[in-house]
Amino acid sequence: MKVKAIEKKLKFTKDENDPGVWRYVMTPEQYSSLSQKKVIREAALRSGVSQGVMQACWDAAGEVIKAWATEGHSVALPGLGTMRFGLRSKAVEDVNDVKTKLITTRRIIFTPDVDLKDELKNTSIQITCYDRDGKEVKRVTSADDAEVEDNENAPSQENQNQGGGSGQENQGGSGNEGGNTGGTPTGGEEGGM
Questions:
Q1: Which end of the chain, N or C, is less surrounded by CB atoms within 10 Å?
Q2: Is the pLDDT at 170 greater than 70, yes or no?
Q3: Cβ contact 130:7 at 8 Å
Q4: Which residues contact 150 (CB under 8 A, 6 or more apart)?
Q5: Calpha distance 92→167 (Å, rounded)
Q6: Average pLDDT of 122-142?
Q7: First CA to last CA across the chain, in angstroms?
Q8: Residues 148-166 pLDDT 10s
Q9: Contact, 85 vs 174, CB < 8 A?
Q10: Given the DSSP bridges, would you call strands 125-130 and 2-10 parallel, antiparallel or unpaired?
């Protein structure tokens, strides 16, 4: 996996006089978004079936996943993990205050398979460092394995008082599958996975 570490000035306040601090910020390099057509063509080649058959299977699987997920099921995505729908909502003390407007976000929750997590864990990382002027200053290659974040069990940093009863956010899943889906390490909302 290729990563860029770019030196950027970070400010932690909105004060114009805040001088900020220079830090190297790492982000993975994204090559491009692969089109569905390209993925289907490659899957057809690897499986020995025609592209038309693969397209029909792909479309059918997508429809089944959507239908079952909207019914509250956690649906297996072969070789990848499971997907389910969930939500974030405010908690209230009085049952008479329970209304759909308490739902703050509808979410798509993806839980990766152990094999997929192991693949990421064992992937070497190649970091290229750039200073504030855009000049390459260092390269680092790491083959060490590291922890892979589990979004399902990440500690929640979003339980905040927001008025109306306790105001705490509930990050449960869909159907009968509750669960703490937590926030990102910086306290912001997740992007749906």
A1: N
A2: no
A3: yes
A4: 117
A5: 6
A6: 90
A7: 20
A8: 777 665 544 443 333 333 3
A9: yes
A10: parallel
